[in-house]
Structures are given as structure tokens and as C-alpha cells.
Amino acid sequence: METIEVRHLSKAYGHHKAVDDLSFTVHPGRVTGFLGPNGAGKSTTMRMILGLTRPDSGDALVGGRRYDQLAQPLHEVGALLDAGAVHPRRSAYHHLLALAQTNGIGKRRVHEVLAMVGLEGVADRRAGGFSLGMSQRLGIATAMLGDPAVVMLDEPVNGLDPEGIRWVRGLLRHLAGEGRTVFLSSHLMSEMQMTADHLIVVGRGQLLADVAIAEMTASGSLEDAYFALTAESVDYPTTATPDRSAVA
Ligand SMILES: Nc1ncnc2c1ncn2[C@@H]1O[C@H](COP(=O)(O)OP(=O)(O)OP(=O)(O)O)[C@@H](O)[C@H]1O
């Protein structure tokens, strides 16, 4: 099974360092959560791992190779970055089939992933009419199409109802139990506490923690530990102090 290795990765937009000499390894057989305040560089890091954004320096490797060096990328890493990235008039089935056909994957696998995410009954409906939960499920089916060893999901439970959140949690635990490398970002602390085994925490593009969840939560909730860790890394007030001067 394969690791994700991020080594001295940096990316700046103008003078702003989105990712700043970041190094960590994501290991197989467990769910690793990727945490950090808004703008900490999580999506940029994931995009560099997937070869969608070019690093200024450093490497992002899957199974020891850069994404553009992977012989069969869909078989090695499956990703959900933006669940809305589907042709709206195409059915779920045809969306998956088109991707399967261009990657040498058979129709049988399309049916398998539709079943895996519970979308068989709506597979012929236009993806543009899907609810957020259905779109997330289709995004996860897309990520799983190549039966990848590495699964990477950016905010997979964003906007999902409790049933959908529980389903994603069960699926990710199952995939890690099969020995896959599961890497996900989420801002939902309680959900992360229930889903992840390990955490990578970033702030202002830099590594703040690379730690087992059990260690991070040894003396309290993940939320408290997270706020303590990231307090210095946010550029906005962390406690709400209502400004009453405007109405006085
Ligand atoms: N294409 C881009 N052009 C300019 N700046 C960008 C671009 N992509 C990201 N950034 C900036 O890089 C920084 C890191 O953004 P990124 O989206 O990686 O953070 P994030 O941790 O995923 O945040 P969030 O939790 O809000 O999704 C931010 O300041 C963002 O504005």
C-alpha cells in the first residue's frame, strides 16, 4: 500500500506563502485528518499532490512518485476536491462511464461504485439536478472508480445531513480498514474526532502538528486542542466580542 509524502513543499501566490516548507507523510491503513484554519493551505497542498497546482519547490509524492509520473493515476489515487465538478446535463452513470472509458476501466466497475455509494436508483438522472448529498456521493464514486490505494477528500461531509455524514464516516473507516491511505480535510471537529486516527494540522502553510488523534485528545476535546494549537495562526479574532458602539 502507498503513502502520500509531502517534502519541503512550498507555493506562493504573489508575496503570500500559501504553503511554506511543508513536510509530512500520510500512512496506509488509517484515516488521516488534515486540519487548519481557513486559508491555511490545505486545498493548495491537496492540489499539489494531485498535480493540479505546480509547487515552487519541494515534492508531493504518491507511492514514491509525482502524480505526473504515475502510470495509472486513477488506480493509485482517487480524489474528491469539488463535488460540483460534473457536467450538469450528464447522468451519473454517463459521467462515470466516460471517465471509466478514458482510463481503461470496464462498465462493471461503474456499476460497482454506483452500488457502493447507493446511487444505482438515480444513476440515469441528470447530475445537475442532484442534491448536495447525492453530488457528494457521486464525487466519492468517481474517486473510487479506479479502486485506488490512496483516497483523498477535501471537505467530503460539507453540507451533508446526519445520515450522509455517518455514511461517509463508515466508508472512510472501511477503506482504511482495507489498508488504503485515507486523507481528508474537514472543519467539523467532532466529526474528525470520530473518523480520524491521525492528524496533520497546518497554519499559515506550515506544519503545526503531526500527531495521533488519541494523543491530541488525551486531555480534552479535539476542538480545545485544535484551538490551542492554531491560536497563533489565524488572522481574525477568535472570540466574538460584539461591537455595540455602532448602535449606541
Ligand atoms: N489560485 C490562487 N490564487 C491566489 N491565491 C490563492 C489561490 N489558491 C489559494 N490561494 C491563497 O492561498 C492560501 C491558501 O488557500 P487554501 O485554499 O489552500 O487554504 P485552505 O486551508 O484549503 O482553506 P479553507 O479551509 O478555507 O478551504 C489562501 O490565502 C488563498 O487565498
TrEMBL record:
This is ABC transporter ATP-binding protein. Gene3D superfamilies: P-loop containing nucleotide triphosphate hydrolases (3.40.50.300). InterPro entries: AAA+_ATPase, ABC_transporter-like_ATP-bd, ABC_transporter-like_CS, P-loop_NTPase. GO terms for molecular function: ATP binding. SUPFAM superfamilies: P-loop containing nucleoside triphosphate hydrolases (SSF52540). PANTHER family: ABC TRANSPORTER, ATP-BINDING PROTEIN. Keywords: ATP-binding, Nucleotide-binding, Transport. Residues 4-229 form the ABC transporter domain. Belongs to the ABC transporter superfamily. Pfam families: ABC_tran.
